[in-house]
């Protein structure tokens, strides 16, 4: 007699971290699960490729009061019970709304598994302590981050890399050197001042693309545009003043030689990235097997070493001009963080078997 099919609900009620969901869908579908998704209408609309993986949706809407949040979470819990959900994976297992859901589900037989995007949530967060009463299994998105924390009492920790993206385009030949900077222009997250200094040392054959939305009215974007104009570098740096869809994202990565996180020790968010959470640029690099240009301050992070070429602020221009991206790219073919089958198996095992 065959085992009963598991029904698993993926939950992303915050409308973000879409990039982590497709790996989960592939992993659980390949494991034979029936798959549901709890999300906002906006998230569903911008990810039409999810449709082939999801058997049913529950769309949430939190417009209004705190009371509305409680009502929506009660509705979600009732819906999961009606759908026969065995396990729920919370794609962003933090925050006040998730706390409400976990308290309501405390005595529900549905097992909750959470994904944490920062180690800070296990470092004294009162809200997380309440959430942990329901969630006993957590993922981090990095082996390195996992090594820096201890599991809460009675809990288990695992990691996986969400490296399954939509179908990727084959690499295309191109002139010059193309460097992708994942995300838009934001000085809190990226060293824009240092970047401008480098541009003065690099000729126009080295092209940069900020592969994310850069709000043209934001002061950081205005600053960079004014700087580019003053340097005569407008043609060397490409920005997007709109959401970058998946086809556009893929097209640019198909001609990218390097991915540059542009996170440095002096960046305002430096304590956040690589110490408490991993830059999304690393995940994209692993998924597309595009090597990383990384500041040498982060050379101790083992999982990036096969994929990385390291620089200092002083020698960035020399490193870019002299380094061959084919060398780290060849190494990436042999390491587990870049192997989607290994990551799917790791994820499914922890969700379904542990």
Report on the structure:
- There is one protein chain.
- The chain is an alpha/beta fold and about 350 residues long.
- The chain folds into two domains: about 5-160, Rossmann fold; about 175-335, Glycogen Phosphorylase B (Rossmann fold, 3-Layer(aba) Sandwich).
- The protein has 14 helices and 13 strands.
- It has helices at about 20-30, 40-45, 65-80, 95-105, 125-130, 145, 190-200, 220-230, 245-255, 280-290, 300-305, 315-320, 325-330, 340-350; strands spanning about 5-10, 35-40, 55-60, 85-90, 110-115, 135-140, 155-160, 175-180, 205-215, 235-240, 260, 290-295, 310.
- Strand 5 (about 110-115), helix 5 (about 125-130) and strand 6 form a beta-alpha-beta unit.
- Helix 3 (about 65-80) crosses helix 4 (about 95-105).
- The longest helix has 17 residues, at about 65-80.
- The two termini are about 25 Å apart.
- The relative contact order is 0.12.
């Amino acid at each position: 007699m065959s085992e009963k099919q598991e029904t698993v609900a993926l939950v992303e009620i915050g409308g973000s971290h879409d990039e982590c969901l497709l790996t989960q869908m592939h992993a659980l579908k390949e494991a034979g699960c029936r798959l549901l998704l709890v999300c906002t209408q906006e998230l569903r609309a911008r990810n039409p490729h999810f449709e082939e993986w999801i058997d049913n949706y529950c769309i949430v809407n939190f417009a209004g009061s705190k009371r509305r949040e409680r009502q929506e979470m009660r509705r979600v819990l009732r819906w999961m019970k009606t759908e026969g959900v065995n396990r729920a994976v919370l794609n962003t297992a933090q925050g006040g709304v998730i706390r409400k859901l976990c308290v309501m589900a405390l005595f529900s037989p549905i097992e909750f598994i959470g994904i944490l995007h920062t180690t800070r949530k296990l470092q004294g967060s009162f809200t997380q302590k309440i959430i942990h009463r329901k969630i006993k299994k957590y993922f981090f998105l990095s082996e390195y981050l996992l090594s820096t924390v201890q599991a809460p009492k009675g809990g288990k920790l695992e990691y996986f890399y969400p490296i399954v993206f939509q179908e990727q385009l084959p690499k295309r030949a191109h002139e010059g050197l193309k460097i992708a900077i994942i995300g838009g222009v934001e000085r809190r997250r990226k060293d824009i001042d240092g970047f401008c200094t480098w541009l003065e040392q690099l000729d126009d054959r080295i092209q940069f693309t900020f592969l994310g939305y850069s709000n043209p009215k934001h002061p950081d974007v205005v600053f960079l545009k004014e700087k580019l104009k003053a340097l005569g570098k407008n043609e060397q740096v490409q920005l997007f003043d709109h959401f970058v869809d998946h086809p556009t994202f893929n097209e640019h990565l198909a001609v990218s030689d390097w991915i540059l996180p542009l996170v440095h020790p002096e960046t305002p968010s430096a304590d956040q990235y690589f110490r408490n959470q991993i830059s999304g640029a690393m995940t994209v690099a692993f998924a597309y097997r595009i090597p990383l240009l990384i500041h040498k301050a982060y050379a101790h992070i083992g999982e990036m070493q096969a994929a990385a070429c390291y620089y200092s602020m002083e020698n960035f221009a020399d490193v870019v001009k002299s380094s061959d991206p084919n060398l780290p790219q060849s190494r990436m073919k042999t390491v587990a963080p870049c192997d989607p089958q290994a990551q799917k198996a790791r994820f499914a095992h922890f969700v379904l078997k542990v």
